[in-house]
Design brief:
single chain; 417 residues; alpha+beta; Rossmann fold; Coagulation Factor XIII, Chain A, domain 1; 6-stranded mixed beta sheet; 9 helices; elongated
Length: 417
């Protein structure tokens, strides 16, 4: 490893990068001949705007953001593929990049030739590249295809080959884009094992990904970019939560045609329903694991004695998640006249799986009949969370794995944090 151990391995200081997007492209000679004086007009697109951060030596640093946020552009600027329009970049040590599938490969050459050429391009001597060839091919599991030209490789095979070359280089800083998603599950696990090894060896890794589970699993810190600007730098759970919230910003509004047919005899009516977070602020997105409250306001049109209000919460597939009723409260509710209103509230720790949930409240007379008003899917909210198990709910729980002879034991706390 090179350089002062107390000095950051990677520093970006107010880095900006913009592109010119043509409004109209002239792609043929005929178009140019017919319109020789036509001037092309452009629109400026700011891919990066004053991006600043520092990565310590030996740190596994995640870079996350939605499509088009500038993550890959930032990585290309760090790798020297793009020149930043302004700002400065400092990278201490040999850099190995894994940014775009097939970059540096010649599709008309076989795997052996591409491995040797790429190894030299990444800083190995020809002798070193040749000595490590067998390790590259074996890790990529492409021994039977080593004489096949790359143009006949699938995208997954090319990913395996490119990643195998990258990890054979004795680089101090690794820049890895999300192209690993192309590989199959078995090879991804091999890559994750390599990540663990490289992290333990103290390599500096900048990892672009959409997978929040990988961010929480590998990264020491992470950064969230949105529209070319840094919005959050912090711990993996903090950044993962911000990323999930950001992704749901465009979906927290009511879905089209969400509410079902209304029914009831009209002695009372459900006027409005809403969700609140633990601070009492009205929200349409709710963080998994936090306390929240569902509220429904009821107005009475005729005199009613001891009414009951109930609600069922369900997911997008219509599967019921929780049902509760004010009838389960032992004390009497009382008598209400025309024009009077009450608010029905249910407070809970949000244990539902991430996704949209719907609330279907109803009001009934004492004893459960008849129904005065029922509004299926009257209100909805989006549960946000980076921990996805595949279940309907995600309850805090303990998991323990122990060998039969009690020699090897492992215990971990999983579930909501």
């Amino acid at each position: 490893m090179s350089g002062d151990p107390d000095r950051p391995a990677v520093v970006a200081d107010t880095v900006s990068k913009a592109f010119r997007l043509p409004h109209e492209q002239v792609s043929t000679l005929k178009e140019r001949a017919l319109h020789p004086l036509r001037r092309s007009t452009y629109e400026r697109f700011d891919a990066l705007k004053d991006v600043s951060f520092a990565v310590a030596r030996g740190e596994f640093f995640g870079i996350v953001g939605r499509n088009g946020s500038g993550k890959s552009t930032l990585l290309k600027c760090l790798a020297g593929i793009y020149r930043a329009d302004s700002g400065s970049i400092y990278v201490d040590g040999r850099v190995s990049t894994f940014i775009e599938l097939g970059v540096g490969f010649n599709s008309d050459l076989a795997a052996r030739d591409n491995v040797l050429i790429n190894g030299v391009m990444l800083g190995l001597s020809p002798r070193e590249a040749l000595a490590r060839y067998d390790s590259v091919i074996d890790f990529a599991e492409l021994r039977e295809f080593e004489d096949l030209k790359l143009k006949n490789y699938s995208s997954g095979m090319q990913v395996r080959l490119a990643f195998s070359v990258m990890i054979q280089v004795d680089a101090d800083v690794l820049l890895i884009d999300e192209v690993l998603a192309v590989g199959d599950a078995a090879f991804q696990q091999k890559c994750f094992d390599v990540f663990n090894r490289l992290r333990d060896e103290g390599r500096t890794i900048l990892f672009v990904t959409h997978d929040m589970a990988s961010v929480r699993r590998f990264c020491h810190r992470a950064m969230l970019i949105e529209r070319g600007q840094v919005t959050t730098i912090g711990t993996p759970p903090e950044v993962a939560a911000s990323y999930v919230d950001m992704n749901f910003q465009s979906t927290v509004e009511e879905g089209p045609g969400a509410e079902g047919p209304r029914s009831g005899e009209g002695s009372a009516e459900l006027v409005e329903a809403w969700w609140e977070d633990e601070t009492g602020e009205q929200r349409s997105n709710l963080a998994q694991g936090s306390q929240c409250t569902f509220n429904a306001r009821v107005r009475f049109n005729r005199q009613v004695e001891d009414p009951a209000v109930a609600v069922v919460f369900e997911n997008e597939q219509g599967q019921p998640l929780l049902a509760t009723s004010s009838e389960w409260v032992e004390e009497e509710v009382g008598r209400f006249g025309p024009g009077e209103e009450v608010v029905f509230s249910v407070t809970l720790d949000m244990a539902f799986a991430p996704g949209r949930i719907y609330a279907s409240p109803w009001v009934v007379h004492h004893g459960g009949t008849p129904v005065m008003d029922r509004r299926p899917r009257m209100a909805s909210a989006v549960v946000t969370g980076a921990h996805v198990t595949g279940g309907l709910v995600d309850l805090p729980h303990d998991v323990r794995l122990a060998s039969t002879d009690k020699v090897l034991q492992a215990s971990s706390q999983v579930g909501q944090r």
